[in-house]
Amino acid sequence: GERQAISKNHLAQQPTSTLADDEQKKTRTKGFKNNPLAKLFLGLTIWALFQYIRLKIEPYIFGRVINSCDEDQLLFSQTPGLLEQNKLNSIQAALENHPLLGRNAFVNFDLFGDTEGLVVRFNKDGIKKIQQNNDLQHCSPFVDQVIRNDANAWALRVLVFHPEQDLEGEAIKIHVSSSLGLPDKNSFFPYQVDQLWVSVPPGIAGGHLNIWHNRENPANTPGAEAAAALAPVENTLTTLRGDAVTSVSNYKATAGKLITLILEQYKLEEQYYAKAVEFEVVQVSDEDHEYIIKAGGEEKMEYADNQEF
């Protein structure tokens, strides 16, 4: 009997829901629904949480851009008269009608337009193969002159441009140089890019190398003005920080080809360096848009239409 009395007293002490309480709850709920500031705050909180997850986690799932440039590194500098004239003449003669030149597809066919070229990828053990390769040894004076001792992987590119009637267009569209082609989900920017104007037609109009800071990439900031528009000058080296954004304008000339040599220089961490190829030549053919990789004397054909490499 005593226990029953306690239980009844306990129940009697419990708060009971009243119409007034229900009305207060409805008012609070209705108040939130009708409060734009509260809804905005909740929306911003959810958005911020989503962005945090995207920025912190997504790169490790889908890959990220690995940039080894120094924060205070110069955007570009120039060195006129890089090579002795006899060495420059040798490179010009070799590249004028090089047997390995093919339609350019370093990233995709649209980006590099009607240019011709090839890519040579190599690591520290492959440097000597540039000198030993009959098709590439003429490039050795350029490579020897600009190669960095603290880099450990490279992409040597040949670009041959053709004159156009429309100077308003671009021979090479806006891009960041990245031709190393590591088999990895991440993308890699070189530490430094060295570009030598090997051959410049007399009386050329156009053909400027346009340069932007990466943070002012016109692909992300439409209308961003280039930091520099450098006219091509034969035997002049332009050294760029590896994350620089560049394009090359169309040019007109009555005779001769506009030819450039480019060396992308990478500083790879050990885990990524292990994926760098010792030596390979990438060539794109005109007829079937296939590229040939020549590595260690072997040839491998792979379909490359609109493929990044």
From TrEMBL:
<keyword id="KW-0472">Membrane</keyword>
<feature type="compositionally biased region" description="Polar residues">
    <location>
        <begin position="1"/>
        <end position="19"/>
    </location>
</feature>
<feature type="transmembrane region" description="Helical">
    <location>
        <begin position="36"/>
        <end position="53"/>
    </location>
</feature>
<keyword id="KW-0812">Transmembrane</keyword>
<protein>
    <submittedName>
        <fullName>Uncharacterized protein</fullName>
    </submittedName>
</protein>
<keyword id="KW-1133">Transmembrane helix</keyword>
<feature type="region of interest" description="Disordered">
    <location>
        <begin position="1"/>
        <end position="28"/>
    </location>
</feature>
